[in-house]
């Protein structure tokens, strides 16, 4: 049996499951919107046993953790914000522990824990360790240190340390901020100290590269974002009227080897890696998303990733 953890609205999960249906393979799908029943997790000096709804360790061959996580807290308790803010933290610790236990006996692809603990600094250090080039990076709360970093580079940018946000003061809406260039005017108007923030040198690029990976297989795609002023800084500043062209790309064997070493060292078995090819012909690591969308990579490059994933799950 194949067990799938996802979200109800995730269409990429649907595409993979359609292939499982085509191959006439049984699976169970549990969405984040559902509530699972934890019958028990029993520990003793002699035994370890878990019963979660329809999930029985002896019956599950593989788990594909595509999106989100399992939830156990009843809906009635989630409607009480003051209580659920505490219960959610308790539940997340439980979910991570169960994930770690299941990984010991089951082929477990994907991870809520890795997604929840997706720390950019850690992965930048790991990329550097496997000899991937990274942008010069500064994390500071000091305007004085930022001025020195600003003077060192022709141009610098800022992005989130972990979660991308933009705060709209009118209705306090938080959305993705992407990447922002820091100007001299912005710097002069900053206070002497501010919240911890990440800054990087701005690197002129030929194009961006999104690599979806599943186990040891890489699916690299070039994003020709430099052809459009609105996306030249960051392709996530989407131009829906004139989308970027996205095409398959071959990585040099040495870069591919370093990327695979990064994946192994990170203990990730699926996700998306962002690189850029600079105008100096250097491949530079930016970040990794431990879940990462793959539908657009598959369709633009005719990779049929969803078919490959389904075939891995059934073999």
UniProtKB/TrEMBL annotation:
Is Transferase one of the keywords? no
Signal sequence coordinates: none
Q: Which UniProt keywords apply?
A: ATP-binding, Nucleotide-binding
- Which superkingdom heads the taxonomic lineage of this protein's source? Bacteria
Question: InterPro entries, per this entry?
Answer: ATP-grasp, ATP-grasp_RimK-type
Q: Where does the chain cross the membrane?
A: none
Pfam families linked to this entry: RimK
The ATP-grasp domain, residue ranges: 124-314
Q: Which PANTHER family match?
A: BETA-CITRYLGLUTAMATE SYNTHASE B-RELATED (PTHR21621:SF0), RIBOSOMAL PROTEIN S6 MODIFICATION PROTEIN (PTHR21621)
Q: Give the protein's recorded name.
A: ATP-grasp domain-containing protein
């Amino acid at each position: 049996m194949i067990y799938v953890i996802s979200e109800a609205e995730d269409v990429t999960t649907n595409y993979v499951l359609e292939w499982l249906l085509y191959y006439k393979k049984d699976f169970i799908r549990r969405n984040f919107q559902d509530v699972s029943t934890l019958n028990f997790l029993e520990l003793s000096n002699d035994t370890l046993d878990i019963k979660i709804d329809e999930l029985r360790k002896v019956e599950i061959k593989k788990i594909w953790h595509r999106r989100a996580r399992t939830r156990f807290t009843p809906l009635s308790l989630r409607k009480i914000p003051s209580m659920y803010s505490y219960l959610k933290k308790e539940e997340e610790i439980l979910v991570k522990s169960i994930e770690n236990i299941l990984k010991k006996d089951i082929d477990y692809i994907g991870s809520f824990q890795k997604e929840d603990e997706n720390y950019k600094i850690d992965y930048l250090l790991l990329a550097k360790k496997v000899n991937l080039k990274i942008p010069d990076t500064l994390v500071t709360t000091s305007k004085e240190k930022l001025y020195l970093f600003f003077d060192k580079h022709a141009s610098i940018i800022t992005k989130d340390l972990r979660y991308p946000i933009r705060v709209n003061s009118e209705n306090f809406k938080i959305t993705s901020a992407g990447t922002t260039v820091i100007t001299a005017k912005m710097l002069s108007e900053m206070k002497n100290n501010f919240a911890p923030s990440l800054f990087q040198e701005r690197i002129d690029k030929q194009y961006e590269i999104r690599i979806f990976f599943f186990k040891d297989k890489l699916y690299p795609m070039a994003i020709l974002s430099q052809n459009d002023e609105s996306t030249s800084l960051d392709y996530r500043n989407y131009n829906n009227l004139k989308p970027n062209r996205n095409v398959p790309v071959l990585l040099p064997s040495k870069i591919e080897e370093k990327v695979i070493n990064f994946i192994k060292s990170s203990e990730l078995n699926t996700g998306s890696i962002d690189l850029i090819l600079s105008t100096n012909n250097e491949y530079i690591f930016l970040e990794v998303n431990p879940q990462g969308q793959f539908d657009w990579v598959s369709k633009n490059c005719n990779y049929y990733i969803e078919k490959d994933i389904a075939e891995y799950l059934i073999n």
